[in-house]
Amino acid sequence: NAGVTQTPKFQVLKTGQSMTLQCAQDMNHEYMSWYRQDPGMGLRLIHYSVGAGITDQGEVPNGYNVSRSTTEDFPLRLLSAAPSQTSVYFCASSYGAGGSSSYNSPLHFGNGTRLTVT
Amino acid sequence: GDSVTQMEGPVTLSEEAFLTINCTYTATGYPSLFWYVQYPGEGLQLLLKATKADDKGSNKGFEATYRKETTSFHLEKGSVQVSDSAVYFCALTINTGGFKTIFGAGTRLFVKA
User: Fold this and answer.
1) Engineering a disulfide at B33: which of A83, B1, B73, B83 sits with its beta carbon 3.0 to 4.6 angstroms away?
2) B51 and A107 in contact by Cβ < 8 A?
């Protein structure tokens, strides 16, 4: 059981380049999300999705796009990379998408993508 | 807005010492509360959770009690081991205007042999 798989593990970009971070889960989870982790700031929510075709913004959405065409996949696109986007990015999923079972359900995390923008 | 505040680290303890990591929260509505642990080079994984007031979550010798009156969810362990060295995150999940999980800043724990 793979769980949540993120690729790549490491990436270096130049300012202005674009790229897509991939995330796939095999647990049939309705809810998927992207976080960035920065020292001393915990995890901050970028975007999330409660099901295929539905996405919404989190706390820090600027500079990022997402789409959810299937239940399994939730890619994160950086449109024009900036040094401020240097961070570790985590994809997470959980069972349910809004009922009481949802917010009692824990998040399942991938192992992260370490992105450096120079 | 909704937020989680946890004690700053790093926390350094000797093996078999008692551990407390404080966590308080602010939330509109009635959140579920979680502790996650992150080992080096890995994503976060659930350590324990509590979904209503006075619930106690426990796992691997760690425990935390959901205290609504003090809006707290402090993590405790009676005797830490070197293998407990990691970063610990307190988090809440709430379903008001969107289903969101909000994390504290994390507390790094070092346990010395």
Assistant:
1) B73
2) no
